[in-house]
Recover the amino acids of this structure.
């Protein structure tokens, strides 16, 4: 299907081994109906020839400020205005650094600085380069500047080292592009609260009780809702996640009590709360002021007290607001989820089982069933967390009266 028909895309290619994958990405974009102008850095040409890219795109590739034979000026300003979307894939550490700092010494960067459209960047580099504080600082800057980062995947890299840094596969990048153009502003005017991540309950100044939640599911939900036009407040426990979306206001908390406090402040003004956080059920009765020392005795006992149940608390005061909860279960999944929905006055509950290897903590995939108060149940296939987020928001939108009220 020609999902990108009539769309103008600038495909920026910089000098990394993953540039060979750009040819495939280009073919996918063209097949989907897009008009693509390739802009390549001088180093990019060392990895893939402009002839291949020109043949695939049906347009001469732009690389220099002036055409070599005619001296004609290639206008990055015109290109920046023409583009409906700019995708830079692969983006090397150097290109990312130049983008973050406005070092406009090639056509790709000048085009980026002139682009009025949304920009996506698919980094590709060795794992140590990706992890370097300098790269991470530049990525944070790009996120603040509103650039969408297509996180690199983990796997074997060109150096034969294994780790994070491999450019996301062309099919996945195409999906992101299609999602960008198909975004429905169906949630415009809606205010959605999302909780994400774990909570940390302090034992003493050094130690805490936590859990394995990465926040990936909650962040994906926040981004999906925002991409459909909702104003999102994302209350998150300690996670190593970034988000680059204007419509998401992020509030960082640590403990369950702090999460409740933050959520209470904003719940009333919202239409929906989606509670994906893995909130600790218990916290140490006291947090010691000084570090607990090793004792001579073989055992030590830590007294824990119950944390507030945020979902149940909101359930009791929700009025017409919609409440969506999660259940991560190891056994009696279905019954436990139904009970939780009832007990916490939820309208919908997303169930995932730890027995399923594609679901759970710190994975990029999830496999869920969605149970609703009206008795309907849908079991979904295993998908990326972003696609699961899309299913969850579709189910939310289908709740009677939600979009029309
Ligand atoms: N939840 C919450 N506050 C808590 C505990 C849970 O808001 N203190 C929310 C979670 O965000 C989730 C739902 O309640 O949406 C279910 O969480 P879960 O931990 O599975 O439920 P519990 O009631 O803690 O039950 P369990 O005995 O299985 O831990």
């Amino acid at each position: 299907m020609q999902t990108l028909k009539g769309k103008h895309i600038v495909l920026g290619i910089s000098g990394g081994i993953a540039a060979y994958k750009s040819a495939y990405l280009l073919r996918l974009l063209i097949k989907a109906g897009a008009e693509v102008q390739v802009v390549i850095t001088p180093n990019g040409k060392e990895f893939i020839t402009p002839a291949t890219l020109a043949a695939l795109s049906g347009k001469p590739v732009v690389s220099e400020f002036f055409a070599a034979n005619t001296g004609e000026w290639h206008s990055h300003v015109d290109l920046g205005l023409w583009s409906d979307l700019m995708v830079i894939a692969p983006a090397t550490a150097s290109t990312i650094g130049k983008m973050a700092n406005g070092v406009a010494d090639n056509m790709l960067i000048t085009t980026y600085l002139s682009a009025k459209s949304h920009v996506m960047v698919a980094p590709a580099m060795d794992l140590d380069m990706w992890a370097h504080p300098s790269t991470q600082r530049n990525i944070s800057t790009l996120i603040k500047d509103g650039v969408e980062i297509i996180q690199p995947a983990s796997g074997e890299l060109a150096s034969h080292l294994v780790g994070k840094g491999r450019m996301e596969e062309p099919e996945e990048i195409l999906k992101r592009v299609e999602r960008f153009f198909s975004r429905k502003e169906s949630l415009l005017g809606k205010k959605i609260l999302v909780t994400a991540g774990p909570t940390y309950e302090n034992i003493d100044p050094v130690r805490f009780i936590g859990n394995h939640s990465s926040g990936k599911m909650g962040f994906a939900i926040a981004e999906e809702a925002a991409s459909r036009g909702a104003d999102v407040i994302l209350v998150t426990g300690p996670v190593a996640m970034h988000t680059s979306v204007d419509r998401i206001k992020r509030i960082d908390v640590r403990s369950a009590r702090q999460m409740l406090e933050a959520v209470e402040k904003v719940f009333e003004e919202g239409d929906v709360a989606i509670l994906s956080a893995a909130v600790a059920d218990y916290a140490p009765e006291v947090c010691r002021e000084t570090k607990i020392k090793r004792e001579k005795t073989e055992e030590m006992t830590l007294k824990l007290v119950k944390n507030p149940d945020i979902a149940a608390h909101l359930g009791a005061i929700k009025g017409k607001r919609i409440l969506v909860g999660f259940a991560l279960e190891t056994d009696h999944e279905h019954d436990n989820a139904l009970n939780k929905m009832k007990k916490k006055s939820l309208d919908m509950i997303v169930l995932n089982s730890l027995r399923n290897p594609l679901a759970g903590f710190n994975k990029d995939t999830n496999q869920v069933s969605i149970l609703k108060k009206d008795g309907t149940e849908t079991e979904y296939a295993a998908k990326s967390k972003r696609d699961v987020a899309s299913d969850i928001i579709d189910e939310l939108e289908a709740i009677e009266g939600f979009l029309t009220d």
